[in-house]
Amino acid sequence: MLGFSKRVKNPQISKDEVEQKLRHIAFIMDGNGRWAKKRGLPRKAGHKYGAENLRRVANRCKELGIKAITVYAFSTENWSRPKDEVDSIMRLLCNFCDEAVRDREKNKIRFVFLGDKAVFDSEMRDKLEKLEEMTADYEHILNIALNYGARDELVHSVNSLIAEGKESVTEQDISSRLYTSHVPDPDLIVRTGGDFRISNFLLWQAAYAELCFTKTLWPDLDEREIDRIVADFLTRDRRYGNVK
Ligand code: FPP
Q1: Using one digit for the tens of pLDDT, what is the confidence trace for 147-158?
Q2: Whole-model pTM above 0.90?
Q3: Which of 74, 123, 182, 217 is deepest in the core (most CB within 10 A)?
Q4: Is the minimum distance from the CB of 70 to ligand 1 under 6 angstroms?
C-alpha cells in the first residue's frame, strides 16, 4: 500500500531534521463515525473523541518540532449531513475554542481558521476571531479548515485578484490570496480512515506534498503512529520534478 504509515518501526526522530524538512503537516481527520459505530455509540461520540484527539496530535507534532499543522474539520460539503450531527460538531467547535482561549498560555499555539466564516452567526464568528486574535503572536500554528473547500478557496483567491484590478495573475499571486498564505505549502498530507482521496482539501498547496494514508481511524491516531508517519516522511526522496 503506497504511503502506508506503518513501514518504520521504533523511529528515532531528530528535531533539527524535522524543523528543516517538515515545516507543515496536514491531516484529513476521517473515521470518527466508524470509530463510534464499532463501539455501538452515536456518530457524535466519534466526533467528540475526534476533537479530543486533535489536541493529542497537535501536541505531539509540536513536540517533534513541526511549526504548522492544518486539519480538515468541516468541509463546504459537510453541511449536507443530518442537522443533529452538524449541530453537535458546531457545539464541539464552540467548546474547543473556549478551552483553547483558556489554555492559550500553557499551549502557546496560534489558531487560524481557514474558510469562509461568513456562513456562521455573529456569536460563532466572534468566538473564532477572538481565538485568532488572542493567539496571534505564537510561533506554532494550528490551522483549522472550517466551511472549507479547496475549489472554493481558489475561486475566492482569483476573485480577490480580479477585485484588485489584476488582468493576469501569477502562481505567486494566487498563493498569496489563499487562506494558507501565512504558512508554507504542506510537506506532508496524512489521511486517516483508509480511503485514498484528497476530498477537495488544499488542492493548490498539495502540488509537491508527500502523501500518507493510514487505515487507523482518526480518534485512534496516537503519538506512536505520528512518530512512525514522521519517520517515514523523513526517508522520502523529494525531487520536485528534478533528477538527483
Ligand atoms: C470525518 O469523519 C470527520 C468530520 C467530518 C468532522 C471532523 C470533526 C472533528 C475531528 C471534531 C470537531 C473538530 C473540532 C476542531 C472541534 P466521518 O464522520 O466522515 O467518519 P466516517 O467516515 O467514519 O463516517
Answers
A1: 999 999 999 999
A2: yes
A3: 217
A4: no
170-182 pLDDT, tens per residue?
A: 999 999 999 999 9
How many whole angstroms from 60 Cα to the centroid of ligand 1?
Answer: 20
Ligand 1 centroid–CA 219 distance in Å is 9
Domains of the chain: 15-233 (3.40.1180.10)
Cβ within 8 Å of residue 145, ≥6 positions away? 70, 71, 72, 73, 74, 75, 113, 114, 115, 179, 201
Q: Cell numbers at residue 49, please?
A: 473523541
Query: Is residue 31 in contact with ligand 1, taking CB distance under 6 Å?
Result: yes
Closest ligand 1 atom number to CA of residue 93: 16
| pLDDT(67) > 60 | yes
Residue 55's contacts (CB-CB under 8 Å, 6 or more residues apart) are none
Per the annotation, the verdict on 30 as an active-site residue is yes
For the residues 68-76, what does the mean pLDDT come to?
98
Q: What is the pLDDT of residue 7?
A: 61
Return the CA Rg of the chain.
18
What separation in angstroms does the CA of 56 have from each of 37, 60, 107, 155, 225? 22, 6, 12, 33, 12
Residue type, 218: W
Q: Which amino acid is at 53?
A: N
